[in-house]
Write a structure and sequence with these properties.
six-stranded mixed β-sheet, alpha/beta, 10 strands, Rossmann fold, 11 helices
Length: 283
């Protein structure tokens, strides 16, 4: 795994409808060949961060009002989503977003169009996806709307892989799935990262699973990064998990609950020696 970042996000701020602030100075880095987890509860800003990176935020009346985003060293703050896909940065949206009226294989084929492959290359890519997700080959002629949630997640990931990405933004891959399917999805992410060198930035509420497969982690709360560090170290910190899930007792000294949680997070990481930037952390 290289320490050079494939993605660098510096102090970005996002506002919806020119009125509602969603992100407040978010910074993060994804080293080339790494899996980075973006953690936090509902409304923390995970999805907004991913959509700001992929330029899909504008489709939801969102504006990137400040900050800088670079992909492979080049600024992409004002890039169009389709040009990013052509350059190897793709997003798997929350909720799978398969085309229900198309077959599994038709959904997969759509992912390759940004590369404009020839017929032989397209067929080879399909066989590669069926090798990764054998279940999809069995269901390839089934309408995606009639497949299970786990199969739809496989379709969504497979469709992204048909674009031959270098970086995948994966939003809530475990949402609504059985634990066994969640493990299967994350094992696939790990294999793609290990064998093909695909980098991942995955937004996930399930910190335990995400950190088990990630190299690094960031914790978002109320649109801010409140903690970051080596994933394996973060995974061992019960204090961190309790803090970011908000299970601590209310304050009795007048300190706002959010401030107390952030202080506990920062104290836990400092005591564990995990407050390192990604390119300084041993994976």
């Amino acid at each position: 795994m290289s320490t050079a970042p494939i993605l660098q996000v510096d102090e970005i701020a996002v506002t919806y409808s020119q009125l509602i602030p969603a992100l407040r100075g978010v910074s993060l880095s994804v080293p080339s060949g790494a899996v980075v987890a973006l953690l936090g509860g509902n409304g923390a800003g995970k999805t907004t961060t991913l959509k700001a990176i992929s330029s899909l935020i504008r489709a939801e009346r969102g504006d990137l009002t400040s900050g800088r985003i670079a992909y492979r060293g080049d600024p992409i703050t004002d890039a169009d989503p389709w040009t990013l896909a052509e350059r190897g940065l793709v997003q798997v949206l929350e909720g799978r977003r398969c085309f229900a009226h198309l077959s599994v294989e038709e959904n997969l084929r759509l992912g390759a169009f940004v590369r404009r492959p020839g017929r032989a290359e397209l067929e080879a890519d399909l066989q590669r996806i069926y090798g990764i997700f054998p279940r999809l080959k069995e269901r390839r002629r089934t309408l995606a709307g009639f497949t299970s949630g786990g199969e739809q997640q496989m379709v969504a990931i497979g469709r992204a892989l048909m674009a031959r990405p270098a970086l995948v933004l994966l939003d809530e891959p475990s949402m609504g799935l059985a634990p066994q399917v969640v493990e299967e999805i994350f094992e696939t992410v790990a294999a793609l990262n290990r064998d093909d060198g695909v980098s991942f930035l995955l937004a996930e509420q399930n910190a335990t699973v995400a950190l088990r497969y990630a190299h690094f982690g960031y914790v978002l709360e109320s649109g801010r990064v409140v903690a970051q560090g080596n994933a394996q170290t973060l995974l061992r910190l019960d204090t961190l998990r309790d803090a970011y899930l908000g299970r601590g007792n209310p304050g009795v000294d007048g300190t706002p609950r959010r401030s107390r949680r952030v202080l506990r997070i920062q104290s836990a990481i400092t005591n564990a020696g995990a407050n390192s930037l990604p390119n300084q952390v041993h994976g």
